[in-house]
Design a protein that fits this description.
two-stranded antiparallel sheet, about 35% helix, Suppressor 2 of zeste s95
């Protein structure tokens, strides 16, 4: 699993293009695609088969 911490990049891009509907949609999924430990984005997550942890 690769994690990428790009919170500042996302906020600055959203501020520049606040009228874009896509930038508002990404924020709805922000909690689902970030790691709860480091708060970076999960780029290529995998799930462990026997316990289903991601």
């Amino acid at each position: 699993m690769h994690l990428q911490n790009t919170h500042n990049t996302m906020e600055s891009n959203a501020a520049m293009d606040a009228t874009s509907p896509a930038s508002r949609d990404v924020r709805q999924f922000h909690d689902l695609i970030t790691c709860r430990l480091c708060r970076g984005y999960m780029i290529d997550p995998t799930t462990v088969d026997y316990c289903y942890h991601t």
